[in-house]
Each structure stands twice: as C-alpha cells, then as structure tokens.
C-alpha cells in the first residue's frame, strides 16, 4: 500500500505545527482556538463523513471482545453467554442514544454514591436451545460462527473506511 504524504498547514503564524505523533499533536488538533472558521468547518465535515463508520467499527470491535469472552468461558460452570443486537445498537449510537453510566441503587444513607460503567452497549444473555449439564449456555458452534461473521464485517468496514479516507485525502491534494 502506498502512503500519501499530507502537507500540514496552519493559519496561525505564531506557533509552528507540532510533530505528528508527539504528545502535543492531539491537543493541538482538538484545540480549535488556532483554527480559522474554514478549518473548523472542514474538520467538522470530515468528522461527520467518517462518524458512522467509526461508530460501526467501535461496536464491531466491542462485539468481538464479547464473543471472545463467551468462547473463553465455554468450560466455565454456570457461565451465561452474552451478546447484543448490533443493528439496534448502531442505530441508537448514530442517533446519540448510546448507553451511559448506570446509577447505583443505595439501601442506606451511609452508602457511597457511584456509577457502574455499563460499557458501550447493554449486553443481553443469549437464549440457547440446550444448556449443558453444568448450566453453561455457550454453544461453541454458534459462538465461532458469530465470531467469524463479525470479523468479516469488521474487515469490510475497515476497508470501506480506508477507501473513504483515501478518497478524502485525494480530494484535499492540490
């Protein structure tokens, strides 16, 4: 694969651009004070162009972890296989209805208030056709098939996003 050189320009003449990959680089990119209104609009358009793909890849990566956890616990007694509905979760994430922190219920005024991080999605227990004698609900055939399917969709999403970024970079070249 060929790397496309990107020339970085800054409208602010007072400060030189930080070196890409340095500690100041991300702070510089996230701090909009140095950007002109054109640069801010361009960054906003790039972000919106890549947002859906980024959300999909993030959810696919999380689902891969969940499925890997199910496979790893296939021999754990009473382990309940978990998963989530990808399409509904992606739709909610794109609409801005992602899961946040859950408030903990307290039964005494002396309990500390806190939150329980629910992760990026609400996991559900998978319904199996036949649980094992030890109460484990992991069906290795189902888990491996879902794992392989999710990996294929992840790679397809990565290829799509990569192509989109290359197209956008080509459009930005003088």
Write out key terms for the chains shown.
single chain, 174 residues, mainly alpha, two-stranded antiparallel sheet, two-stranded antiparallel ribbon, 4 helices, 4 strands, flat, disordered N terminus
Topology:
Layout: H1 23-30, H2 37-72, E1 82-83, H3 86-94, E2 101-103, E3 115-117, E4 124-125, H4 140-172
Antiparallel strand pairs: 1-4, 2-3
Helix pairs in contact: 2-3, 2-4
- What share of residues are in beta strands? 5-15%
Share of helical residues? 40-55%
**What is the averaged pLDDT score?**
77
Q: How is the largest sheet built, in terms of strand order?
A: 1-4
Ends apart, CA distance between termini: 21 Å
Radius of gyration: 22 Å
Please give the count of helices.
4
The major β-sheet equals: 2 strands, antiparallel
Series of secondary-structure elements, N-terminal to C-terminal: HHEHEEEH
What is the number of E strands?
4
Q: Please state the structural category.
A: mainly alpha
Overall form: flat
Can you give a write-up of this model?
- It is a single chain.
- The chain is mostly helical.
- The chain is built from four helices and four strands; from the N terminus they run ααβαβββα.
- It has helices at residues 23-30, 37-72, 86-94, 140-172; strands at 82-83, 101-103, 115-117, 124-125.
- Strands 1-4 form a two-stranded antiparallel ribbon.
- Helix 2 runs antiparallel to helix 3 (86-94).
- The protein starts with 22 loop residues before the first helix and ends with a helix.
- The relative contact order is 0.15.
